[in-house]
Amino acid sequence: MTGSAPIGVFDSGYGGLTVLKEMVNRLPDYDFMYLGDNARAPYGTRSFDIVYHYTLDAVKWFFKQGCHLVILACNTASAKALRTIQQNDLPGMAPDKRVLGVIRPTAEVIGNYSETCEVGILATKGTVASNSYPLEIQKFFSNIQIHQEACPMWVPIIENNEIENPGTQYFIKENMHSLFQKGENIDVVLLACTHYPLMRAQIEEYLPVQVKLLSQGEIVAQSLADYLIRHPEMETKCSKKGSLQFFTTDTARDFDEQGSAFFGGGIRSSHIDI
């Protein structure tokens, strides 16, 4: 398939829908195709090798659908798989196609939000272990101190609809206390997992008033818009009918019920195997 096609958006599950929502708001004329690998989620606790192979499976699936551009709207996939796919797989498999992630666009701008030059990162264990954010941010802001905090309970809490459970406050409080012990002068905190915006209100309860809380959706959407302007050869390959398609490797009914909270509206998905 060589004609224009939707922009592919991939996540291990539901979280990438928070990024897709902002992409649609920013680029409403474009077509998007979303895939959640819910059957094999979560990715955050899996090894680099497993995440790489799962992510590559998804990228190949998007390419078979005709997509020329795929966005990994998943921090773990971006941290553990993106570089290998870009450097080792694309040149031989699909040299004219592109796969982008969510870490670099965030790293390119996050230092602009900080006056103290101390930034906090809230993420999964996998993203923290990869050290991707400190490495990428240092490329653009060498004076920024990065303090990371792994929050392994947050994704299960969100996906099990336990956000309002009183016990949830314990885990948020513990993680936020631990983060600010690492850096007392943090004035910017990044939600470096696409699930976390659903707990934004609860997180803000334990955030000092002067601290900015950033989620990635708007940053990544703006970065995508800028990318398409800079790369007209890719922009012309992106179809523009304002359509949305949703796919999941798990049960479509479950995906639709859970996913609507992340996307902020009703969705209708189809099951696929990859």
General description of the model:
With 274 residues, the protein is of the alpha/beta class. Helices cover 45% and strands 16% of the residues. It has helices spanning 16-26, 48-64, 75-80, 82-93, 103-107, 125-130, 132-140, 154-159, 166-182, 200-204, 217-230, 232-235, 252-263, and strands spanning 7-11, 32-36, 69-72, 98-100, 118-123, 145-150, 188-191, 212-215, 244-248, 269-271. A 6-stranded parallel sheet has the order 4-3-1-2-9-10, sandwiched between helices. Strands 6-5-7-8 form a 4-stranded parallel sheet, with helices on both faces. Strand 7 (188-191), helix 10 and strand 8 form a beta-alpha-beta unit. Helix 1 (16-26) packs across helix 11 (217-230). The longest helix has 17 residues, at 48-64. The mean pLDDT is 96.
Question: What is the arithmetic mean of pLDDT?
Answer: 96
Radius of gyration, in Å, reads 18 Å
* Helical amount: 40-55%
What is the element string, with H for helices and E for strands? EHEHEHHEHEHHEHHEHEHHEHE
Kindly report how far apart the N and C termini lie: 19 Å
Structural class: alpha/beta
Widest sheet: strand ordering: 4-3-1-2-9-10
DSSP summary, beta strand count = 10
Largest sheet: 6 strands, parallel
Q: List the total number of helices.
A: 13
Uncertain segments of ≥5 residues (pLDDT<50)? none
Strand content: 15-25%
**Overall 3D shape:** globular
Oligomer: single chain
Label this structure with key terms.
274 residues; alpha/beta; six-stranded parallel beta sheet; four-stranded parallel beta sheet; 13 helices; globular
